[in-house]
Amino acid sequence: MCAPVMAKWVWLAALLCGSQAAVLPPPWADVRRNPCAAHPKGWLMLYWPADGKCYTIYKKGHPCPDTQELSPGRWGGRTVAECKCPPGSAQLPHTTNCHKLFERGPCRPGEYFAPVEESFNMRGERQGMCVRPQQCADETLIYWPADGRCYYKMTQGPCYPGAILDVGDDGLANCTVCHF
What we know:
mainly beta; two-stranded antiparallel ribbon; two-stranded antiparallel sheet; 1 helix; 12 strands; DUF4789; signal
């Protein structure tokens, strides 16, 4: 009785492992959409129209502002190069500096830099704003902005192993490494 069941599992495993998968190239690897794609390793580069040069994708700095990275974007049916804040960061409206989300960043003491809902962002930029942390039920708890929850102070809370949750000099929750 076990042999037929086992045979079915072996057959299924062989079918799944023996099947082949295809890797599709990203849209910017098409020479018709991105002239840099014709170069060796061109699928890692984007064309920057302002100077007619090819630049490495997702690299911070030139031709973008120092804190932004070169990213692929869409304009009509074409792939275009855009400067954007890297994941986990955003910018204030009308500025080009990117700041880490859920940290003090450009905010006053006691405030943190929070993402603005995408529906508010008409230009496709990752934008943020300064907000005050929510108050927790009692003073033994501290608000962790990244997940919007309250955790007990001086515990691991949302921190990685070996760190404890505490209040930093800026009045915000932070993870402190324990040195014993």
